Amino acid sequence: MERDLEYENNNIAFDFQYTEENGGGIKCKNYELCKAVLPKLWFEYMGRYLCMECHIMFGTWGEGENSRTGKGILEISDNLECPICLEIKRSIIQPNCEHTLCIECFKRCYYGDSDNENEPKFPYPNVEDEYYEDENNQKWKTDYPLIKIYHEEWGKWNDEKNQKYEEETYLQQCPLCRL
Fold first, then answer.
1. pLDDT tens, 79-92?
2. Which H/E stretch holds residue 150?
3. pLDDT above 90 (res 63)
4. 65-66-70 Cα angle (round to 5)
5. Which H/E stretch holds residue 55?
6. Torsion angle of alpha carbons 18, 19, 21, 24, nearest 10°?
7. Which of the residues 68, 74, 104, 130 has an alpha carbon 20 to 30 A from that of 122?
8. Number of Cβ within a 10 Å radius of residue 36
9. DSSP secondary structure string, 4-39?
10. Three-class secondary structure of residue 80 per DSSP
């Protein structure tokens, strides 16, 4: 794949990491699904316009029994009936077959219960940015004791989320043909 400067220029996006002030980043080719913004030098490093999550879940990589063959960039169409919720919506073609699902049902099938409503919240929101810029500063241990508890709770939450994801690999297949 060659670098696509037209794609880069027409798909600038902003998030907390790639802000408008610093020029933003480039949308993942599956942005409507994953909402990932890539650094402007991503193509030079990776040779593609897919975020790591989309590449791992939907791309082609590896050899032997640990390999994966997928489309990588998923096609999105308008006004198709979803066979799960039966609503006519923007739909996405499955990575391993030609079935389509609406984006919301696709997310539920591939990511399971992906909402992060139970994710522990940082206990001191007014200093969160400062904390992540200098996590090793001793003041966080002495002046902000809830940070240690937050990290323990977040680690436990993340482990449970990852375990559920590993146990529910069947969700990473088309719900119609199981490919």
1. 999 998 899 999 99
2. helix 146-167
3. no
4. 100
5. helix 52-58
6. 50
7. 104
8. 20
9. -HHHHHH-EE--SSS-TTTT-EEE-TTHHHH--EE-
10. strand
pLDDT over 70 percentage in the chain: 89
> How far apart, in whole angstroms, are the C-alpha atoms of residue 94 and residue 86?
17
Instruction: Tell me which DSSP letter residue 136 carries.
Output: T
Q: Is the pLDDT of residue 8 over 70?
A: yes
- Which residue is associated with the tokens 């994953």? 34
Tell me how many helices (H) and strands (E) the chain has.
Answer: 8, 6
49 vs 1: CA distance, rounded Å:
10
Q: Record the tokens describing residue 166, joined without a space.
A: 């590993």
Cα 108–chain centre separation: 13
What's the rounded Cα separation, in Å, for the pair 141 and 138? 6
- Amino acid at position 146, single letter: L
**What is d(CA 109, CA 79) in angstroms, rounded to the nearest whole number?**
20
Token pair for residue 133? 């810029």
Phi and psi torsions of 93, nearest 5°: -80, 135
Residue with tokens 């810029």: 133
- Predicted pLDDT of residue 116: 60
Which amino acid would we find at residue 2? E
